[in-house]
Automatic annotation (TrEMBL):
Source organism (scientific name): Mucilaginibacter angelicae
Lineage of source species: Bacteria, Pseudomonadati, Bacteroidota, Sphingobacteriia, Sphingobacteriales
InterPro entries assigned: BphY/WalK/GraS-like, HATPase_C_sf, HATPase_dom, His_kinase_dom, HisK_dim/P_dom, HisK_dim/P_sf
EC number assigned by the record: 2.7.13.3
Segments forming domain Histidine kinase: 228-439
Superkingdom in the source lineage: Bacteria
Name of this chain's protein: histidine kinase
Record-annotated membrane-spanning stretches: 12-30
GO function terms (MF aspect): kinase activity
UniProt KW keywords: Kinase, Membrane, Phosphoprotein, Transferase, Transmembrane, Transmembrane helix, Two-component regulatory system
Reactions that this protein is recorded to catalyse: ATP + protein L-histidine = ADP + protein N-phospho-L-histidine
């Protein structure tokens, strides 16, 4: 999960917890709030009623010592004033009760305010009631409002957190993308600083740039060392080879000595081949080749098939050239020849007797894919991961394998901006895919 999503999720969950806690308090307090609201309303009605005791309708009833009763049309509210036993001292304060009353065969539960008062030397009991249904409606309104508020608050919180974290972490993702993901060669690293006001991201940017500078220097020293050592070794190897060949020309040389000389020459030739391979990798990585040739892939494949014809017959292998498209790219033709030669040569080297090698291609909108498949020994996942490492050798009957073929392939594909992918199943075969961009 991305850091941006984690931060937004964390902020949303914490705020949601606060909102839910507040909402729960409101929901638990709804009944008290509703009853308090109704009681305030009843007290207001009480004051208005006491003010209007002198009105003609009420006064006539009270003068005759008869109860005054008033229900509204829906029986949701009522006012009752009835005479009671005279009390010289007026009852202080109002009382609230919840009772069930029946009027005109309609039974409802009411919240009732009861207040005893004196008027014109008589004592009266005032009852003002409001149906509980109105309280329930109020509670329902508050619940819906609370729920709507929670949903809106949560949505706004989530959106605002996502927008803010995206803005906050934008420099971080730029640093990761530009200075880690897209870095194929430390020698061509982009040291331009990413604009940010966050000190932590500035520190990360500077740290990566410093680290890449150290790695670049080490790469440069390594390439220079390999190139220098390889170049310097070729001269003494050539001299030793010449001397051994001259010794072999002497007629008095014994058969045992001649065999030792041939073995030494073979070892020197092997060493020379390794050095040449290392020099090739070094030159490719140092961009010492140009890319001015128009290379036709199908033509190179046909040349390699002819070159390796003897080896294919020797191993009784079937070569299937299923290329359907004429695809060309600007590059270095000798290097592309070496690239494809190494891949097809590996398909021969690690194949099974009487097996097959198939070269096919596929043309898509943005890429051209070349596939080289064999029916050989295959590789496990660990071998696939290490396949492009230098001097990584697999089991083979070939004695002239140095473990540099795929390292050369990797260098040449990187030089030409070609992606290379390996799919393989142990004891079933291997497929190598070269993916060319159609720019």
């Amino acid at each position: 999960m991305k850091l941006q999503v984690k931060l937004a999720l964390y902020n949303t969950l914490t705020k949601l917890a606060i909102i839910l806690f507040t909402g729960l308090l409101i929901l638990l307090s709804i009944e008290k709030i509703s009853y308090d609201h109704v009681e305030l309303r009843l007290e207001e009605n009480e004051r208005e009623t006491l003010k209007n005791l002198s009105s003609k309708e009420i006064n006539s009833k009270l003068s005759d010592q008869k109860p005054y009763t008033d229900y509204n049309i829906l029986k949701e509210e009522f006012i009752i004033i009835r005479p009671v036993k005279f009390q010289p001292t007026e009852t202080q304060g109002a009382k609230f009760t919840t009772e069930t009353r029946t009027s005109d065969q309609v039974t409802q539960t009411y919240r009732i305010l009861t207040h005893q008062f004196n008027f014109n030397n008589h004592t009266y009991l005032l009852e003002i009631g409001v149906a509980i249904t109105s309280i329930e409606e109020l509670k329902s309104i508050i619940k819906r409002f609370t729920l709507l508020t929670l949903v809106i608050a949560l949505a706004l919180t989530l959106v605002s957190d996502l927008v803010f974290t995206k803005f906050l972490l934008a420099p971080f993702y730029k640093i990761i993308d530009r200075k880690l993901i897209k870095v194929n060669d430390p020698m061509n690293f982009d040291y331009e600083k990413i604009k940010t006001t966050t000190q932590d991201f500035e520190l990360l940017d500077d740290s990566i740039s410093t680290l890449m500078k150290k790695i670049s220097n080490l790469f440069s020293l390594e390439k220079q060392f390999i190139a220098n050592v390889s170049h310097e070794l070729l001269t003494p190897i050539s001299i030793i080879s010449s001397r051994l060949e001259n010794i072999l020309l002497q007629e008095e040389l014994s058969e045992a000595s001649e065999n030792k000389m041939h073995a030494s020459l073979k070892t020197l030739n092997r060493l020379k081949s390794i050095i040449n391979s290392l020099l090739l990798i070094s030159k490719v990585e140092n961009n010492q080749y140009d890319k001015a040739d128009m290379v036709m892939i199908a033509g190179v494949i046909m040349e390699i098939e002819e070159e390796l014809e003897d080896r294919l017959e020797e191993r009784h292998l079937t070569f299937n050239n299923n290329i359907k498209y004429i695809y060309s790219l600007m590059g270095n033709r000798p290097l592309m020849h070496t690239l494809l030669f190494n891949l097809i040569n590996n398909a021969i080297k690690y194949n099974k007797p009487k097996g097959s090698i198939t070269v096919a291609d596929e043309l898509k909108e943005d890429v051209y894919i070349l596939e080289i498949t064999d029916t050989g020994a295959g590789m496990d996942q660990q071998q696939i991961e290490n396949a492009f490492n230098r001097f990584e050798k697999f089991e083979t009957e070939e004695k002239e394998s140095y473990g540099l073929g795929l390292a050369i392939v990797k260098s040449i594909t990187t030089f030409h901006n070609i992606r290379v992918k390996i799919d393989s199943v142990k004891d079933k075969g291997t497929s190598v895919y070269l993916i060319f961009n159609r720019d």
